[in-house]
Amino acid sequence: MLERLRELLPPPADPVEPGRPDGWAEVEATLGTGLPDDFKAFTELYGSGKVDDFLYLFNPFAAGEDGNLLAEKDRVLAAYARTRARFPERLRLPPFPEPGGVLPLGRTDNGDELYWVTRGDPGDWPVALLESRAARQEVHRMPVTGFLAALAAGELATRVLPDEVVHRPRHEFTPFD
User: N or C: the chain end with fewer CB closer than 10 Å?
Assistant: First the structure.
């Protein structure tokens, strides 16, 4: 999937805050779980930035707290648990670290949230997309690089992301300043 994503959404020549192969063990120990290899490769190749100036993935190597996976995890999961308590019929997936729980992955400028569904091996984790205002949750049975490639190819079937993002004629990744 990463190769397809690279073709559809070229990585920056000079990524900002790229992941470091020697830093993942500490990140995973802090999180209490392994992470998907495709996410690690994406972070090492793309670093911190936005897709279409709209969607971004949390980067555990980001210098600040905003957008840093390790800093965002507890805050996002607490908000998710509050929303789930209000709308249990809409948010059936438990929060991480419960078995099969959702682990924060990213966010959109609309406040929609992306999560991994932590069932089984990290390489098999699908992406869950949570709409900010309606508490609608979609599970996309593909890795995060597959999700981004489907978005970049205009093939992502979603009711959460706006049509003007999903059906753009061209998609791009822009590193953070």
Answer: C
In whole angstroms, give the CA distance from residue 177 to residue 31. 27
Pairwise CA distance, residues 144 & 152, whole Å: 12
pTM: 0.95
Nearest CA among 111, 116, 1, 103 for reference residue 54? 111
Would you say residue 71 has pLDDT above 80? yes
CA 26 from centroid of its chain's CA atoms: 20
Four-point Cα dihedral 57, 61, 63, 65, nearest 10: 50
Residue 113 · residue 107 · CB < 8 Å: yes
Total residue count of the chain as it appears in this document: 177
Amino acid letter for position 1: M
